[in-house]
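Lab notebook, bench 4. Still working through the backlog of constructs that have no structural model yet. Next entry is a single chain of 568 residues. Request: give me the structure tokens for it.
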Amino acid sequence: MPHYNCPNRKFRRLPITMKNNISTKFQTVTGKFGEREVRYLTSGSGPVIFLLHQSPKSADEYKPLMDLWSNDFTMIAPDTPGFGASDPLESDQVTIEDIAEATIELADALGIDEFGLYGFHTGAIISISLAHQFPDRVEAIACNGVLVLTDDELEKIRAKYLPPFIPQWDGGHLNWLWSRMREQLVFFPWHERSKDTRMQFSISDPSILHENAVEVMRAGDNYRSAYGAAFEYRLENFVPSLKVPALITAGEWDPLCKCLYDLTPSKSTLIESSKDQDEALEKSRRHLSQYTNNKKINLPKSPLRRNGLTKSFIKTSVGDVCVEKNFDQSNGQPLVIIPPIGGSSKTIRYLSDQLSSSRDLIVIDLPGHGESTKEIHEPILDVFNQAVTDVINDQDIQNFTLMIINHHGSLSRFINENNARVNHLILVEPWFMDKDSIEEYKEKGIPDIEKEWHGGHLNQYWHMVRDSKLFWPWYNTAIDGILDLKPELDESQIQDEVTELIRSELNWKSAMISSLDASISNQPKVKTSICFRNNHPLFRSSYQENDFSELQLNDEIRNWSADLEAII
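Model written out:
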């Protein structure tokens, strides 16, 4: 289902600071599609409604709407399978009916028997499928923008609309992605370039296009799942038999508005256009208010996954912090892992997935990174130290091994204040640098990357991360900068690192500068092991005056867990 930026621009006219508290949660769901985790937003009071987003986006697009409707409904806005931070479905070919059933599985896991639905574009189509398949669970639906295709149009969509999104060594997939985001505001369908398909949309500000591109980067090739399923669903066959109160509308600006005339309503269905997005939203609000009467429920705590790590959020004094863990209450001395600055739990799966099979483990996304809060203040290292302190206290962890990847100076305060609880500090390839090297890196290695109309900034990120696997520092591409190591150039790993670096916005820059400054004067005062690949230039001599034990790591990062097991 196509997505457009017009609704986003409309929402952005709302105040940036939301008046309503929106909570982000994860729920483990087990059912037809295996065991999976679903990320969802929740807010408001009143009858329960689900908000289903367009493809290829996430529930985050509904934050302004959740503020607008906070006094009317208790809202549940999930990332649909494979988008945002929700796991994809275990299915060879995902259908809209599958996604509808997966939504019911989520409702069951949350203890929600009846609910209303609001959906935009793909979300609208999922809503129709839900209402058709589960009329006893759905009280009412409000659909904003639906698509009806002829057989010929569908064949053209199948052929060209959804090409695979596969990371390429040269970052070429990002060039395609950016052009694709722009082109869909010029033509619909985006791949049919004619006068008839030309749309009257302004090209969005680069920051808006950037947000849309990053959502696709998060989904990866999964972006084709719900997106493609929406095209295949022939909703015109099901609308005439809908039994629940249904509103199907679209703003006159929406190219899908014309599809309303191809639908035959049931006795319980109202089909009408709206002047603009504001009117469509207000009609939807009134419709759902009239027909939803379910009782608000208390959302349950999500159970641990049977296998692997479970995501959850911990409320700290500096905001919600996302963690991945495999225990409710640790029976021993858990391993606490802090990912690199600019990274997240997603970028170290090669390590955490293997280590979690043999010990209690918790991975903490630092504020400003991963799924943790992005609303942070300076000084950023104080925020980091407070967040980790609050997480450890919340989990009642008395003794633990702390593993920090790269940035050993960022948690110096936490380590010193908790040296009685930190049994062992493991620094994985820490950045021991002298003052001159630090000043040079701050000048050359932390560039200002501005969002550009042509999308070139995505390639800047890509090549910065890729070159960091080949040179040290990454910007020194001369002979003396060549890393004498086996190149770690797996495109999927680089894609994850680039995506998470971009998602950390400007937080990674501030954090990197502050961490480098802290690394000079703050040396840990606990049992410490330094782990490194033998030929990495960071480990020549700068730490030898300290009483650290050493561990040589395998050249291949996917073999590090076996090496680290020996000292944990």
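Notes after review: Confidence is low (pLDDT under 50) at residues 4-18. The chain has two domains: 6-291, 310-565. Flag for follow-up if needed.
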